[in-house]
Design brief:
Distance between the termini: 56 Å
Strand content: under 5%
Oligomer: single chain
Radius of gyration: 16 Å
Number of strands: 0
Order of helices and strands: HHHH
Shape: elongated
Structural class: mainly alpha
Number of helices: 4
Length: 112
């Protein structure tokens, strides 16, 4: 398999995982807004927690980004994923804000 094919495979996998985590994160947001803190909420929160641990272990980079670096010299934020450049560049900031809303909402729901 060529480096180009390997990079495309990584980009496809990375994009699929990104979509999965979008579904999870927006479910968490929906759950706190509608007061549906259920088993799926806690599973989703645990999955996001595992993702945060992975990011911490890899210096705030996705492990797939580290692997993709072997196959590309690009410095663009979206070299390893099929996202618009602006979204890839600010991905962590956007989802940190959303998850902060989720956590505040969770605390509010549990306290109320």
């Amino acid at each position: 398999m060529t480096d180009a094919i390997k990079l495309i495979s990584i980009k496809l996998l990375h994009t699929a995982i990104w979509i999965f985590f979008n579904v999870v994160i927006f479910y968490l947001l929906f759950a706190v807004i509608t007061d549906r803190i259920d088993r799926w909420f806690w599973i989703g929160l645990g999955l996001v927690g595992l993702e945060v641990i992975a990011l911490l272990l890899f210096s705030w980079s996705c492990p797939l980004t580290v692997v993709a670096r072997r196959y590309s010299m690009s410095t663009k934020a979206n070299f390893d994923i099929y996202l618009p450049l602006w979204l890839a560049k600010y991905n962590k900031e956007i989802y940190t804000v959303i998850m902060s809303v989720v956590i505040v909402g969770l605390v509010w729901r549990l306290a109320g």
